[in-house]
Amino acid sequence: MAPLVPSQEELQRRRIIGINAETVTDIPSTDFPGHWPGESHGWALDQFKNNFRVEFHRNERFEASFSLIGLDAAVANAFRRILMAEIPTIAIEDCFIHNNTSVIQDEVLAQRLGLIPLKGSVEGINWMHWYKKASEDGSVEEDGPCDFNTIVLHLDVECYRNEHAHPDEKDPRILYTNSNVYAKDLMYMPVGRQEQYFVGDGAIAPVNPDILIAKLRPGQKIEMELHCQKGIGADHAKFSPVATASYRLLPDIQIVRPILGEDAKKFAKCFPKGVIGLERVTAEEAAQRGSGYEGHAGEEKAVVKDAFNDTVSRECLRHDEFQGKVKLGRVRDHFIFNVESTGQFESDMLFLEAVKVMKLKCNRWKRGLADLVG
Amino acid sequence: MPESVHSQDQDQSMVDAELIEQPQSNDPILEEKQIVVLPGATETAASFQFEGEGHTMGNALRYAIMKNPAVEFCGYTIPHPSDPKMHVRIQTDDTTTALEALEKGFNDLMDLCDVVTEKFTAARDQFNAESGNRMEA
């Protein structure tokens, strides 16, 4: 027997998660074999290919917003989690402090330095290897820093009194030189093959040169050697390539019974601007029996203009006059992603990288199946 | 690296590049991590333990395996939050085995990734071309 195929209306109905004043309904996905009697729902690649869509809303260098439509939450969430925790980047990991007479303590300074996002040639970062640390039980030996696993930065700043400053000068930035230590003071020292990879614009440098690292006064000095290594966000947040990577489900507003006149204006005010629009009831609609518009020709009615921008605040559900006239929901398989890069990679590349990591993980585990241990 | 701390010569802590060959593998995340079949497994019903894996793969894999009509049950759990282990339980009917279902799950996920990459790239290129045109106009 051929499997039953549900109607388009039924499929559309199943896509909506209901949002009520105090509860949510129809939360889990139901598109699995065996859930709906007679229907198939087995994995079919060509079907997925036909249904899956991507829509871009914004694509700036370091901030992208796009919709993935036709995906399950499990997969969308995997991409989001990989974006935040499993895409490798470079960050300062080891600080060798030769001299630090500033007021900021060694360990606080080291922590601050680690969090500075660094940029550099993507090709070079991909070429870099992981730095193997010694394991606690001593079974794994440490790699030792090499050109393919460590990038060296130097920070050498000393604060001096500015001889040419006016005697009455109060501003420490003019009174002293190097009173503020900024991220731009980090000097990159290429070693070995790094000279081929990190050249010109691809040199390792802080994304934002104006990050304040420390403040100094005359006679104080910071002298350190910083070793940057490759790592992932799961290990430490400083390695995360994204400032934020989040998704939300597309809001869905259905006006089930007409909302007219003053009520319509009040209804529109329950939503962010542009979500609900006001239109005149046409003579045609008013002539239709049972439409709820009878005798209201020319009056204003509320219509859904753009549910995308809704925050689903549920404000409209608090008012008695809208009781039973509106249904709020979210579309189960429409994920509006927002990816903001910290500046190492372009944000659209980051998402592609996340998909790549996911595939790589699958591949590795699949190979691991060969030597299963029982 | 204690010599670096005491040394005044800044280049000394780096080993000369030519001396050390780069290791072949470039991915420690899954290196030497293995899948273990937990005791009590039969052909069609087994629990697999993934070391160093979490909700990221767990839930996505559960979804892919549940999409297989021959699978009667599939679920995943992380038995203890501070133990980096993830368990996947698979029970299938007679037409397949738990192991095959797991492998199919990986294959389906990889196919899915290919489609996502393809469609994402196409949508991005189209969007960039259109917004480029708009700016020129």
UniProtKB/TrEMBL annotation, chain A:
Look up the record and report any one GO term of the cellular component aspect: RNA polymerase I complex
Can you name the source organism?
Answer: Penicillium bovifimosum
Pfam families registered for this protein in UniProt:
RNA_pol_A_bac (PF01000), RNA_pol_L (PF01193)
Domain of life, per lineage: Eukaryota
Major localization listed first in the record, in broad terms: nucleus
Among Gene3D superfamilies, the record links this protein to: DNA-directed RNA polymerase, insert domain (2.170.120.12), RNA polymerase, RBP11-like subunit (3.30.1360.10)
User: Do you know which SMART domains this protein is assigned to?
Assistant: RPOLD
Q: What is this protein called?
A: DNA-directed RNA polymerases I and III subunit RPAC1
User: Where can this protein be found?
Assistant: Nucleus
What would you give as a GO molecular function for this chain, any one?
DNA-directed RNA polymerase activity
**Might you name a Gene Ontology BP term for this protein?**
transcription by RNA polymerase III
Similarity section: Belongs to the archaeal Rpo3/eukaryotic RPB3 RNA polymerase subunit family.
The entry's keywords: DNA-directed RNA polymerase, Nucleus, Transcription
UniProtKB/TrEMBL annotation, chain B:
GO terms for cellular component: nuclear DNA-directed RNA polymerase complex; RNA polymerase I complex; RNA polymerase III complex
In the UniProt record, does the keyword ATP-binding occur? no
PROSITE patterns, alphabetized: RNA_POL_L_13KD (PS01154)
Cellular localisation: Nucleus
**HAMAP family assigned:** RNApol_arch_Rpo11
Q: Which organism is it from?
A: Penicillium bovifimosum
Any one GO BP annotation for this protein: transcription by RNA polymerase III
Molecular-function annotations in GO: DNA binding; DNA-directed RNA polymerase activity; protein dimerization activity
Q: What is this protein called?
A: DNA-directed RNA polymerases I and III subunit RPAC2
* Residue ranges the record marks as coiled coil: none
- Native organism taxonomy: Eukaryota, Fungi, Dikarya, Ascomycota, Pezizomycotina
Assigned protein family: Belongs to the archaeal Rpo11/eukaryotic RPB11/RPC19 RNA polymerase subunit family.
What's the main place this protein lives? nucleus
Q: Name one Pfam family in it.
A: RNA_pol_L_2
Which UniProt keyword terms apply here? DNA-directed RNA polymerase, Nucleus, Transcription
Has the keyword Cell division been applied to this entry? no
Q: Where is the DNA-directed RNA polymerase RBP11-like dimerisation domain?
A: 46-118
